[in-house]
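Tokens help. Consider this.
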Amino acid sequence: MELTNEFVKRVLKNLPASEPRDFLFKNWSFGGKPTKEGFGMLPVPGVDAERLLGRITDVDHYVGNLAHVVECRTVADAAYTPPQQTRFYQRVKIPLLGDVHHELLMERLGKHEGYEIAAWTILESETAALNKKKGMRSQYNEGCWLIGEGVVGYALSSAPRKDDVGFLKWKAMTVGADAAAPKILRENIEAMSKWTARG
């Protein structure tokens, strides 16, 4: 399967030459965005790629298994065929700042450069139509999961719409998000791996 997702291409370009022995984080600026793009990678001995991909695409059960996700559900859409493609709504609670929500499309992209990959992109018009009283709407949100031999990676690029937040909250959600990224990415990898291991 040819890889056309430009974000995933940038992530693959920035991956280390050899798989890490401990948690690894890397980020970079791109396209004038107010937040950096980045990824975390963590050794997960014995990880089963197909089982992990099954959890990643099981968006209806994110709540209670992944930190800060307070609402997440599949959105029926004949244009997409789960589990290869899944349209879904997600609302995430950011401690001290409030909720962010969006509609996303998750796609299984197959194997590239030794990694099984599932990636998501924002559905812009659907997200723009969401009620901002229920949470800040994302301006952009894209990312991917990478599963290799004994290693799991999680990459993310996200920010809320500037007109949905005040100046101080905007700074906290952009500059602050970059500072918090290593911790958040590691926690997500650990949570997804533990959920998968529970069966």
